[in-house]
Amino acid sequence: MSESPGKISVPCDVNGEAVTLRAYPFARLLDVLREELKLTGTKEGCGEGECGACSVLLDGELVNSCLVPAAQVEGANIQTVEGVADGERLHAVQQAMLESGGAQCGICTPGMVLAAVNLLRHTPDPTEADIREGLAGNLCRCTGYMKIFDAVIHACKK
Amino acid sequence: MRAYLPAYEMVVPRTLDDALALLREGAGAWQPFAGGTDLMVLLEAGRLEQRKFFSIRHLKELRGVEEVDGGVRVGALTTYTDVRRSELLSQHFPMLGQAARETGGIAIQNRGTVGGNIANASPAADTPPALLAYGAEVELVSAEGARRVPYADFHTGYKQTVMRADELIAAVRLSKPSEGARHFYRKVGTRRAQAISKVCFAALAEMEGDALREVRVALGSVAPVVLRCRRTEVSLRGRTPDDETLTAALEELGREVTPIDDVRSTARYRTRVAQNLLREFLSGLRGGGFGS
């Protein structure tokens, strides 16, 4: 392959820290986070935007990091599951997931946490329908969802 | 198999003019990249044939909803989330909000754009039937200038459009329906979120007494393009939606759609559901309800 365009430098902010990523323009944000920054909390499920396991917040909006190319995150603020807790203190959603048994195998959990955090930012007092809609892009194969919904309801009360 | 990443290029033009200059440079050499919700899926599957892209996501002049001379202009980069949050659209074009809400999940709605949904030209897209029912126009822009095309003439065949290689979709323009117009939108898929439609139906009716003064009916996933059902409309226009009209319209619709069997559904099911949805829409007009 001659004339390969090569990697680019992408300055951005990840979990409050300024970083400069080195990546191919079409490298998926998911892979850059996991492989370059070693932030392996973000999981890959389907790799095509269907399952939500790779959810992160990009400039405050929930996105599937498998669908975001590195070239589009220049100057962006990225928050992964590693940046949700405040030091050792878990976010209300994380604490509620623990207490409600909202996680089993755990693969969907980081994405669920971010979808729930995103939901509560926009809708602090959600109805059950809001919760179902807010998490509808995140698939879970273990829990049957009810305990995850319970966790979000409990998180609102904290 | 995953694509070989070093083979793909993406540049970020600073302005719309820079983007249009890239488009003019050698027909089709560079392609626009907006939210990536379709293109990144192709990339991951190793089926993204185009190699050189330019990002347009940051071009603010192509994003947002504004009121313009008697209508509304929706910038091509307006996301589904933007559509859902727009008071102007929910007031005058409620089917667009419904379509946006039923597209993907929240994460997809934050990235996917109205212009991308049109440019991708999938016959199964969720917003286009609503755009057809609203009689939308597509505003195209190039280094040569701008032009408008009725959306009903935009798609010419499966994944084929009237766009030239040097053009970009700038916006969609919509005329406000009358106050009492009836809007009916319904997407049928395996589940509410994420699913691609088996059938998607959008219709708009303006009544005069009991009669349909004006009616537009459009469907997704029943033909190689999102389909404006003009013959069905003719069978309804000027008539009262009584049993006789309804039966004739259902038959006409059955002839007008040309669905296929595929992974999501069968031709027979799609035709039947399309007819059921037309029946539901027309029955709603008769009952005086809003149908949706």
Entry summary:
The complex is a heterodimer of chains A (158) and B (292). With 158 residues, chain A is an alpha+beta fold.
Number of self-contained structural domains of chain B: 3
By CATH reckoning, the class of the largest domain in chain A would read Alpha Beta
Strand content of chain B: 25-35%
Mean pLDDT of chain B: 94
CATH topology of the largest domain in chain B: Uridine Diphospho-n-acetylenolpyruvylglucosamine Reductase, domain 3
Structural class by secondary-structure content of chain A: alpha+beta
Oligomer: heterodimer
Q: Which class best fits the helix and strand makeup of chain B?
A: alpha+beta
- Shape type of chain B: globular
Our measurement of the CA-to-CA distance between the termini of chain A, rounded to an integer number of angstroms, reads 56 Å
Tell me the span between the first and last alpha carbons of chain B: 43 Å
Number of spatially distinct domains of chain A = 2
Order of helices and strands of chain A: EEHEEEHHHH
Largest sheet of chain A: 5 strands, mixed
Output the CATH topology of the largest domain in chain A.
Ubiquitin-like (UB roll)
